Amino acid sequence: MITNKKNTLFRKLNILTVIIAIILLYLIDSDIVGNQYIKRILNLCAIYTIVSVSMNLVNGFTGLFSLGQAGFMAIGAYTVAIFTVPVELRESIFYVVPQNPVLSQIQIPFFPALLIGGLLAALVAILIGMPVLRLKSDYLAIATLGFSEIIRIIFTNIKTITNGALGINRIPAIPSLELDNFNISFGPMWSIFGIAALSVLLISLLVNSSYGRAFKAIREDDIAAQAMGISPFKHKVMSFAIGAFFAGIGGGLLASLLGTVDPKQFYFTMTYNFLLIIVLGGMGSISGTVIASFIVTAGLELLRFFDEPLTLFGVNIPIFRAGLRMVIYSILLMVLVLFFRNGLLGQKELSWNAIIGWFKNKMPSHKKSEGGAL
Amino acid sequence: MTFEIFLQQLANGISVGSLYALIAIGYTMVYGILRLINFAHGDIFMMAAYFMIFSMVNFSLPWYVSTVIVIAATILLGVVIEKVAYKPLRDASRMSIMISAIGVSFLLQNLATYLFTGVPKGFPDIPFLTKAISFGNVSLSMVTVVTPIITIILLFVVLFITNKTKIGMAMRAVSKDFETAKLMGININNVISSTFVIGSGLAAIGAILWGSKYAAVMPVMGVMPGLKCFIAAVLGGIGNTTGAVIGGFILGMAEIMLVSFIPPLTGYRDAIAFVILIIVLLIKPTGLLGEKVTDKV
Amino acid sequence: MKRKISLFLCFMMVFTMFTACSNEQGTSTSEAGSDEDVIKIGVFEPLTGENGGGGLQELDGIEYANKMYPEVLGKKIQLVVVDNKSDKGEGTTSVSRLIEKDKVAAIIGSYGSGVSIAAGDIIKNAKIPAMGASCTNPMVTQGNEYYFRACFIDPFQGKVMANYALEKGAKTAAVIMQNGDDYSIGLGNFFIKSFKELTGDENSIIDVSEFQVNDTDFNSILTNIKAKNPDVIFAPSSLTTAPLIISQARDLGIKSLIMGGDTWENPSVIDVAGSDAEGIFISTFFDESNPATEEARSFIEGYREELGGKEPNIPAVAALGYDAYLLIRDAIERAGSTNGDAIKDALNSTKDFEGVTGIINFTEEGDADKNIAVIKTVENGKFKYIDTVEIK
To answer: What CATH number has the domain bearing residue C194?
Structure first.
């Protein structure tokens, strides 16, 4: 009986959270609360969530140490950039080397382009994965990193398609969805958060399906998994490709949000940001990754004051200058890696049970998790 | 292409290759013992270059004194990094320790950007190294000629240490079998520290030669050489010192030859290292000179 | 236990920093909110990253201008500076931060055209006028009525250098560009175009090479160029790579003239390249030995003192930063308000503004209508004025 009651309570709480989230989203999107700056950061958080969760699927759940996320994002971002920029603007953007005459006539609406971007990323992942996924741990890491760099270097060099290093500017913003009958319009934020929610949902469904269990079996011991009749190779490629698909989607959204792409953005160090997020959230925890994405992305903006000159009691403190923010950020990363190896949630998921337990369980653990959240 | 131009390119290739080789030794030794890609190695190299600027420009010490100080300081940095960032994770998964290495690399880069700004600093002039010499139409700076020689000498020194000394024997034992070596009473911590001492020392020498050749020092200078030297180590057979040197030379030559024989592909120069890496990993993961080891993972 | 204590201390430290700074921020926002005596102008410049050096110089000029002319419409002008890390993503967030969080009336920046182009749309949508100081790529102001700039643009600069190369008797040229930099690619291509037109010879450009962002080794590219022996090497690039190209070229025994763009006018180029930098030619916006206006005379005097020997020359970007600030201030004064559109209209109607870098009027696109560039060389470890080139 008690558990039943508890369950209905939790279900109500779930619905309540979703409703609150939607109301918040509405208030922010329609500019009643907050401003463009906050909106921008939240959108970035949501995009980072998509990419990080997909990276966690590969690294945390399947145990493949892949560092290729930036490359797959680049594929998604460029697909959106190439196909959504209005045809009449192409000439002024490709002002050094004209665009490929066939491509320069093709314009696709945003959502199909986004999907194509994701699919292309997945396709490339399958092609790369076939040979590379036979490698183990750090060899795999360095090989995927290598592929991500190769993708970036190719994009830098095929100028008739990608405009080379100049990048593509004037990418239209994500279109608003209009519902004429009701006179409501859903701004870009709805699309980004909608896609993020959908991605998280799909990945958590996948993780809890029989495929997900196979992924986890491979992570723990792929020889044993093989003995159980699971084909490690097939599942590895699958996880890798799905991860790449969502990274591509994330990249496409990012391109549209920033309005500009260039190869430099997708330097392999970009992947480290996502690595930090999944380490903080907990390798193998989806809810942890979501929370960590928001903490890290918003946190980096919050830490910005470290870059500003600071005057305390009329004395200018000289250590506060440009660059300090990133030093603090990397020190926090090191503390995290050394002392909180399991991140916020380890392999656990956030649930109401856990939250209530957490509040009941008093000080020590409480303090610690709060510290980790920084 | 005239013969002289070819010679010039050949010299370029050998000199870039020997610099790669010098740094690759550090990678290969650390990997051989800890099975860790020390991502911070390239940044230790970068810090060494800044140390050199400090001691020669800010303290105006002569270059030979500075060289000694810089090598000592870099070794200290390498050992401290090992003690702080890698040692506590010795029992953790390989993924954790590698993330820690990435973290250290990130920290060193950001620290350097913060302390020295992103503006490139001029590397102090070591007259003996920067002197230009020319053979007919081929002109080289002294450092281009000296680097391969130093690399070869240092290779023999390292080979001597690993093959003939007691600590070297311990190193080989640890890299063969970590657990058994421990049981045999080998002081693992000492062995690991000495690996970092040798690796960082070579990185410091590499940094001095690199600085004399390219004249500019900046916070991101270690990133690409770092990755490429790891690739050189993999190419030569990771864990094998001679292999790392050969790998370095091959990689340097491949890059230069790509640019000189197929100029339209200049843009792909950085990609070639990764292409080589992937080919090696797929065809012969043990590299050119690596011995077959049973998978410990 | 030890671990816990150390952690606790660590977080205490971070927390105190947070609280200290949020207090700080709290007071400063309340100042701006309650006290209408401040007009905020945002400055977004690369203070770290690849273009950090130039960004800092430009910022110095802007801050000096703020010191000289601290008020407009009877209110104090407060500069809000953000670092865009020479990164487009970071650039867009930092600009939107300036507009939304700091509510600036106008924006100055950025050094490096790529970041400015990326931020352009946000500026346009927010209807906040922006003034580029030294971003020379035409795309910055194209189709953006809110973006202006105080400098000339790349096609002009490319033409100037091509002209000068010809004047020096060059018949063939090699171009080295940085693949990854709008500025470098833009300027390089405009040079190629002009040089071909001027020589009337399609084959006068005998080599075009591109290098990657973090390249430090140009020996192989330069050896290829050496084989073709051009009269001139034109290598517009960031100041990080400039000294490397110069000294490696000289080490290889290349005797050709080496020319670069305005980014090279930085002491760090001479510092790093040493004696190899002697005899290079650059085009730039401004020269201190030859003041164009009255404003310039007083600026040169005052700014030299301000620098106090920190740098041997007044960098052109500092002068442009100074001009950018004055142009914005002048427009706010004439507009009589801090309304974005009013400032924009005032900027558009700027007439014969006496800046440090010459008389400034704006073209329809919002570019400073300048037809003068300064050519400098390096002599005895210093930049030296050679000529002022005028192109109709």
So the answer is: 3.40.50.2300
